[in-house]
């Protein structure tokens, strides 16, 4: 894939870009419909099991101390056991709730959130092949009065199989065949580097100077995933729905499978487009045909770099962050020139003083 191709395609799709708007709602009564829905990914179309026709499923927003009523209606062919909510938070009273929703039935569940809960959890189907597409974030805000000062951006990392997931899973059970997916996804999308995927690339629109709370969940079946954003640091504040004792700032985070991380992202760079990447193995030189991306898009009028800048994770090809390596080059050149200047000055000075000294010593009396 050449830059030229990416350039032209990106220009084409900008007008059709799906804008992401972070929103929070109070939905104390939630209705989930389990149904098969057709999706186009990786140049193919297939049906997957979804909640309300969405992949990943809808984000549930809740507040500490609140009780939610969740109705799950199963319009699928198979029974589905639902699970809410996964997280290992200290105070998460509502952890480990699972219930069967038989095909054709509707089951109501009350989910009570304790007063001191807050953070990012997720809900999903129990069965592995169902869980691959039936999952979503469960975000708990603190009680009213305590300010939530950052806009939420749920980021669900998942996987896409070209094959029917149930078949892939049954083959895996029967013959030990590979359960490896064809792509990792951010919000259901493999991103710019995969075929037939550019139109859908997940885009996060940000305002310069604002801070955002990225609520990242890794729903992948087997893989840990590393997430980084070009030229931006992430400040990790919570893991698995529980604040961490010591916040830290890093250029990328690693999410163990089925875990979540809350991190603050500050839009503090030059307005531009920046890639967010999700990769399994950062020690590997990456294959540009297989790198999952989303785009952080600053609001405003400017001409973005095309393609957007890629982060410099360990072993990522620095060629991609061209302007950054150019900056480094300028710094190095400046040092080299300054160094040369000082060396020359020093040599001239040394020679002169030395000559003076020598002439002083050789001149007797
Ligand atoms: C959500 O709605 C319920 C009932 O209408 C209300 O008691 C609660 O305070 C609301 N929570 C928020 C965060 O607005
Ligand atoms: C669904 O679950 C019920 C109760 O456990 C069981 O009787 C039924 O056979 C199951 N149906 C399918 C399609 O697995
Ligand atoms: C859910 O809560 C409501 C109101 O508190 C109660 O009437 C209902 O019985 C509960 N339902 C279940 C399934 O526990
Ligand atoms: C992307 O969008 C353009 C414009 O709507 C459309 O012509 C093109 O077929 C789309 N490509 C894919 C792979 O869906
Ligand atoms: C990221 O963090 C490192 C180390 O704390 C710091 O040197 C660097 O300037 C930060 N970068 C940005 C873009 O904030
Ligand atoms: C990551 O890639 C390196 C280099 O190819 C390899 O040695 C290592 O085993 C890989 N790690 C995993 C977890 O796949």
SSE layout and pairings?
Blueprint: H1 3-14, E1 29-41, E2 44-51, E3 60-63, E4 67-74, E5 80-86, E6 97-101, E7 106-112, E8 119-125, H2 128-131, E9 135-141, E10 151-160, H3 165-175, E11 183-186, E12 203-206, E13 211-218, E14 225-229, E15 234-239, E16 242-250, E17 252-255, E18 260-266, E19 273-279, E20 292-298, H4 322-362
Parallel strand pairs: 1-4, 3-9, 10-13, 12-20
Antiparallel strand pairs: 1-2, 4-7, 5-6, 5-8, 8-9, 10-11, 13-18, 14-17, 14-19, 15-16, 15-18, 19-20
Bound molecules: 2-acetamido-2-deoxy-beta-D-glucopyranose (NAG) (6 copies).
Identify the notable features of this structure and list them briefly.
365 residues; Immunoglobulin-like; five-stranded mixed β-sheet; 4 helices; 20 strands; disordered C terminus; binds 2-acetamido-2-deoxy-beta-D-glucopyranose
